[in-house]
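Ticket #4471: structure export looks truncated?
Reporter: QA, pipeline team
Priority: medium

Steps to reproduce: submit the single chain below to the structure queue and open the exported record.
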Amino acid sequence: MNLIEKILTKAITEKVRTAAVLTISDHMESTHSVDALINKSTSNSILVMKRRSNSFKHGFTVFDGFNNKKYIAKPDFLSFGRPCIRLYNIENDEIGKVGLTSNAGMGTYTISLDGKVLGTVTRKVSLKMKLELNLNGWHMDGDFLYDNITVTDINGNQIMKSNKAFSASRESYVIQMTNRQHEIICLLLVMAVEIILHGNE
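Actual output as written to the record:
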């Protein structure tokens, strides 16, 4: 191998190594962990909604930012074509639910708290998943599969954001809120996305 070939080989090797490092770095930046999201958060209130198993039908356990158990979210075992997910406190009292109430279009899901209807989420016909929120004048936006969600009020102020994360090989959501009073409503919104995506599978 002559000098020019050695120089070219070294340059190519360096470029491959640099590309590999950048790829790993990009992967680390785009891979969310529960701890990383909590540590970076500046929100006043945080909830972590952890899937109880690899199956949606087993529901979620919800913890605060200090890993204290606060709520349980469980889909109905029998839905009869009307999937529903319910929210319970740690005493196992039902405090809210999200359920399919209309099959028109791609479906409308009603959000209820303490037996009172708060609003609805409607899945719109679109190449990209699109959800229309009808609640307090709020707006919901998300990425392609709504793994990452942002909710803003009528003035564009952020109410919450939710990011899908991974913990012990199970899906979790880190929910960050600007106002602790919105905690349960924000949790119900994330539950709404889950029931829309998975039904009672």
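Status: closed, not a bug. The export was complete when the record was re-opened. Leaving a note from the reviewer for reference: The chain is about 25% helix and 40% strand.
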